Amino acid sequence: MDQIKTILTSIIEPFTQPETYTKLATNIIMILIYIVVAWVAIKVINKIIAEFFKMHNKSKKGNKKRSKTLVSLIQNIVKYIIWFIIVTTILSKFGISVEGIIASAGVVGIAVGFGAQTVVKDVITGFFIIFENQFDVGDYVKINSAGATVAEGTVSSIGLRSTSIKTISGELTVLPNGSMGEVTNYSVIEGTSIVDLPIAVDEDIDKVETLLNEFLATLTSKYYLFVSAPTVLGVDDITRDQMTLRITAETIPGEGTTGARILRKELQRYMKMKNIKAPQPLMVQYDTGQQSNA
What we know:
Elements: H1 2-12, H2 18-60, H3 64-93, H4 98-113, H5 117-131, E1 140-145, E2 148-158, E3 162-166, E4 172-176, E5 183-185, E6 191-200, H6 205-216, H7 219-222, E7 231-238, E8 242-251, H8 256-273, H9 288-293
Antiparallel strand pairs: 1-2, 1-5, 2-3, 3-4, 6-8, 7-8
């Protein structure tokens, strides 16, 4: 009974001392100061990193998408480092041995490591994605896993463990880096727009090709996405009532589909303005009386 009383007294007694509350209040204030300092430091350092890459792009015409990817990565690493320093400092203020925690974490890490192989794989793959420049933030990609497409869209962010992809319909897909198999990047090389234009079979084909080529040459100044002037390749198909002209254009990376839509719209307007006839189906009338006599 005396032992229990002694234990309870030793627990309760510190809470009866004014020094305890003074020390606790001091520590709480210090913790709040550390948190504010960390928050301000992260904001300032992130701003410095962003400005550095912004100046780098202006002076050396660097890859803006690549810079955006590295800015996000470096800012995340800085954030983790600062918060690690703050947490260890706070623990030290409460008399908790940080060295002991780190040593224990090493032992526990070995035991947990076998169950965290997926996380390690994700991080290692993340390093390869970033430093091999497989794709950058803003690229349009299609990602396959085990032969099936798991995500297709614009890269929103790249982290060491996961990558976020915004689909064309607006959903945000977050993929562990280790789950990515085949990656198709549509934003690395120039795109190609291909449009098949049907015209009436009785049109003067040489005249139409000349008119179209003159008109298509004006689109490069109107639309930034055309790398060079679209051209008429020639007659791709002829049927009884129509000819099909194939038109192609080289676009900036990832804009082949958009370029094709623009070409269709502009060509329709131009054909109407120049009275270039669209194909009309031929109607064949049969004499039913002659068929029955036959």
